[in-house]
Amino acid sequence: MSKKVLLIGWDAADWKIIGPLMAKGEMPALKKLIDKGVYGNMSTMNPPYSPMLWSTVATGKTPDKHGVLGFIELLPNMKGIRPVTVTSRKAKAIWNILHNQGYKSNIVGWWPSHPAEPINGVVVTDKFQKVKERP
Questions:
Q1: Residues 70 and 120 in one domain
Q2: Within this chain, do residues 30 and 51 fall inside the same structural domain, yes or no?
Q3: 90, 66 contact by CB (below 8 A)
Q4: Looking at 31-35, 43-47, 63-67, which range is the least confident one?
Q5: What is the CA radius of gyration of the chain?
Q6: How many domains does the chain have?
């Protein structure tokens, strides 16, 4: 029997809001996942910049080691800035490690995950849901 792990991260989620909603029956799917698994609070770092925090979760390394320090970074020529991307990360993410061990991973909306890395599995990048024009 193969074992699977599902890690759900919810940026800026707050159990003070989620708990009462689940208690009222307004989040049955999440309640079912929690009842069959584990959950908890994660500590954060300051400043609480999402790309930095998510890269820390993915790599198990602190920002000074994985290289993602915020939402933007200097261009290599030092003449401008750009949004951080997966190429900003200087450490392997868990899906890279699993890929190298022959395991499959599916990543959806991880920040930053664009451009998609070639892995054994699927990567739907954090840029996928961004729309340039109003639909």
A1: yes
A2: no
A3: yes
A4: 43-47
A5: 17
A6: 2
